[in-house]
């Protein structure tokens, strides 16, 4: 009967709107319950605790790991506490709730400070290495953000007269970590969801260590496992936008449409392009449990959003989304010695993985293979050098490219390739490569990085916008 719903950090930072739109809305009485919410830290908190996700500016963790200035991380931690208390003051105007919120986060940060100081002192002895403990420190710091927002949410709901319960998955003061699935199952045992609205932390402390595998994508993994473990009717992710037919900033707000329905295969194609509707490992958990996923706009609560299921297929072949990514390079390897040698491709793919370069796609002919990879230019240059060292006869070139994709649950649209080529030609865009697999869920066009914006607009106009091409309409 219940749903499991996730709210991201940007939405949580607009808490009054989220409280009125999602947590409460027009619901009364029993309608308020049969829901579990998984909340992320408020926007900017995890950046301050770890490091800025985009710029790399160091937070508490990075300063602690660097260890050149032992006081720097303490100052950063104090700054985080002040930032969290400022958020508390923004949320609560009653002394009772404000004092409770401040006491909670002050206690947590005090524990963390004491633990990290002790660890730093311990590692001053040669038998103990700080590097061996850094991942545990990273997890402990990350948990502060989710605990802060979850505690405040429960406090705010109780103030509104709602029976709310905090499920703290951070493992605070827990003597021994449990397995991930056991931690979640045990934490929800005995809870009557018909009588309590549950708010759970996005971070889960467990024996496996979520950040070892997922780093900052852990909250969606927690969300999916809660849905699977509790047998949810539906999983819902509330975002700041709808899952639309293209980026409205590139195409125009009046041109895009909400997808409405699609499947997990399409969601995986989006993940491959770095545009995650949901983390692919979280999607796998939901898919295997037979749970549908709904993507909703947190600030348009009455809109049904987009429903993602395993067996959905559009009623007729159509393009649903024009998407892509610009943080990619074309790594072209030409060597006439590679013909017939499958080991060539295997070894280079292994090298790219070792250098943590994400392989989006690749194509090949008799004497060349081009890898379309995302990652730092520094690692890409290193890959080029190592390939040339391993294969002295090879010629390696790096191209600045972008990928623009047409994606749909059934892409068997007659003439789609011709329409695509014509649309890009009319826009003055040269296609450097094109991929259309037999499965017919995605067609990728490789263009120069400077042509990305124009290519997205051109393909959306040609393949989706109904006023121009009534026979190719996005699923709505």
UniProtKB/TrEMBL annotation:
InterPro entries (alphabetical): AceGlu_kinase-like_sf, ACT-like_dom_sf, ACT_Aspartokinase, Asp/Glu/Uridylate_kinase
Reactions performed catalytically: L-aspartate + ATP = 4-phospho-L-aspartate + ADP
GO biological process, one term: lysine biosynthetic process via diaminopimelate
Gene3D superfamilies for the chain: Acetylglutamate kinase-like, VC0802-like
Domain Aspartate/glutamate/uridylate kinase, residue spans: 3-297
GO CC list: cytosol
Span of the signal peptide: none
EC number: 2.7.2.4
Residue ranges of every copy of the Aspartokinase ACT domain listed in the record: 404-463
Alphabetical keyword list: ATP-binding, Kinase, Nucleotide-binding, Transferase
Family according to the record: Belongs to the aspartokinase family.
Protein name, as recorded: aspartate kinase
């Amino acid at each position: 009967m219940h749903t499991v719903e996730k709210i991201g950090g940007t939405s949580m930072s607009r808490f009054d709107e989220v409280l009125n739109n999602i947590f409460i809305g027009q619901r009364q009485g029993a309608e308020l319950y049969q829901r579990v919410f998984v909340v992320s830290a408020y926007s900017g908190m995890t950046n301050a605790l770890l490091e800025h996700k985009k710029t790399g500016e160091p937070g508490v963790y990075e300063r602690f790991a660097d260890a050149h200035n032992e006081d720097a991380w303490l100052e950063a931690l104090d700054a985080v506490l002040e930032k969290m208390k400022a958020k508390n003051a923004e949320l609560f105007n009653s002394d009772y709730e404000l004092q409770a919120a401040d006491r909670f986060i002050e206690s947590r940060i005090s524990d963390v400070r004491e633990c990290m100081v002790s660890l730093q002192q311990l590692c001053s002895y040669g038998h103990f290495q700080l590097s061996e403990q850094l991942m545990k420190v990273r997890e402990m710091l990350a948990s502060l953000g989710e605990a802060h927002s979850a505690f405040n949410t429960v406090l705010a709901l109780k103030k509104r007269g709602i029976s709310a319960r905090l499920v703290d998955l951070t493992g605070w003061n827990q003597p021994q970590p449990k397995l991930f699935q056991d931690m979640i199952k045990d934490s929800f045992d005995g809870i009557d969801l018909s009588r309590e609205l549950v708010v759970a932390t996005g971070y889960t402390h467990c024996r496996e260590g979520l950040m070892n595998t997922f780093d900052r994508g852990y909250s969606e993994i927690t969300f999916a496992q809660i849905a699977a473990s509790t047998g949810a009717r539906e999983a819902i992710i509330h975002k700041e936008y709808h899952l639309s037919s293209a980026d409205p900033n590139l195409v125009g707000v009046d041109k895009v449409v909400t997808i409405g329905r699609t499947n997990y295969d399409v969601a995986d194609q989006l993940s491959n392009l770095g545009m995650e509707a949901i983390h692919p490992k979280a999607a796998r958990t939901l898919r295997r449990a037979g749970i549908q996923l709904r993507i909703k706009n947190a600030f348009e609560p009455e809109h049904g959003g987009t429903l993602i299921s395993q067996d959905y297929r559009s009623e007729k072949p159509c393009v649903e989304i024009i998407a892509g990514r610009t943080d990619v390079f074309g790594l072209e390897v030409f060597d006439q010695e590679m013909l017939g040698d499958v080991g060539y491709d295997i070894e280079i793919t292994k090298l790219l993985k070792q250098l943590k370069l994400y392989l989006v796609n690749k194509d090949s002919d008799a004497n060349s293979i081009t890898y379309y990879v995302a990652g730092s230019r520094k690692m890409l240059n290193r890959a080029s050098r190592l390939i040339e060292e391993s294969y002295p006869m090879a010629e390696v070139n790096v191209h600045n490219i972008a990928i623009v994709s047409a994606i749909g649950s059934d892409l068997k649209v007659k003439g789609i390739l011709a329409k695509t080529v014509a649309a890009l030609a009319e826009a003055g865009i040269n296609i450097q490569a094109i991929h259309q697999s037999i499965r017919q869920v995605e067609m990728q066009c490789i263009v120069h990085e400077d042509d990305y914006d124009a290519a997205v607009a051109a393909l959306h106009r040609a393949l989706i916008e109904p006023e121009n091409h009534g026979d190719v309409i996005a699923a709505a």
